[in-house]
Amino acid sequence: MMQTQVIRIHAHGDSRVMQLENHTLAAPQAGEVLLRQTAIGVNFIDTYHRSGLYPLSLPSGLGVEACGVVEAIGAGVIEFKQGDRVAYAGGAVGAYASYRVMPVDKLVLVPAGVSDEIAAGTLLRGMTAQYLLKQTFPVHVGQTILFHAAAGGVGQLACQWARELGAIVIGTVGSEEKAAVARAYCDHVIDYAHFSEHVREITGGKGVSVVYDGVGADTFAGSLESLARRGMLVSFGNASGPVPAFEPAILAQKGSLFFTRPTLGHYTSTRAELVNTAADYFYAVRRGFVKPEIGQSYALADVAQAHQDLALRKTQGSTLLRP
């Protein structure tokens, strides 16, 4: 038996519903390992789970991303051993904990050269950038792409990576402060206002090969207007609300466009897909193609402050909890 501190909620609501509790963990069963967690990632989806926007079965833990060290293994586990550094991003909620029992099929090895903090705070975003740029619409040398929210968590990683792949990157931002951040890794940084007009100016009227759009409702129409003939709109998020219903004929009218709504889970549903996607992201970090930023960290007991700062846009880069 192992004692662990965990953050749990017994009702949905604001940051005050999160409670630090002590729990007893059973020994790992077949196909499981016990992790001593060293760093925990905080993501916007955690606030959606807490508030009830994405309802959970209560009571519940929170958090989907962390890094840790394998302390014990269950029967039949051969892929990992005691002392291995591993990380995960996805699966059942409950990452806000000092120790956790996890199924091995959700874990990936963290290679030397990648810190616990980077693994815990950026794996989810890094794998998202990987599948968007290299699987959903594979980016090639010379293509011009548009990435919305270029200064955001996924945007920062993806724009750096896209430039390494040889793309000309146009990034949108909502403020001069965010523009200053995005200029470090975008070829062109533009404001959301009238962005499709700016895209046409930059591309000599041709438009871009692909738009990666995690904003949703507010940018949908402009994203279609920004695409070149036979371009693709990759709608992977809805920060401003879901994309409104539209007639498929509009895709033909705008230039025989493609539209897709992918999710990470569908690109990492097999063991091989998960391992390969994570390994490619870690390789990019180790080679310096992508330089993630850990902006701030909080003690596990201070999780309410972490959520408040995230909601108020006071954070930069990735946010961590320290078990």
UniProtKB/TrEMBL annotation:
UniProtKB keywords: NADP, Oxidoreductase
Presence of keyword NADP: yes
Residue intervals of the Enoyl reductase (ER) domain: 13-321
SUPFAM superfamilies: GroES-like, NAD(P)-binding Rossmann-fold domains
Pfam families listed in its UniProt record: ADH_N, ADH_zinc_N
InterPro entries: ADH-like_C, ADH-like_N, ER, GroES-like_sf, NAD(P)-bd_dom_sf, QOR-like, Quin_OxRdtase/zeta-crystal_CS
Highest taxon, organism lineage: Bacteria
Keyword Nucleotidyltransferase attached: no
Coiled-coil regions, chain positions: none
Protein name, as recorded: Quinone oxidoreductase family protein
Organism field: Iodobacter arcticus
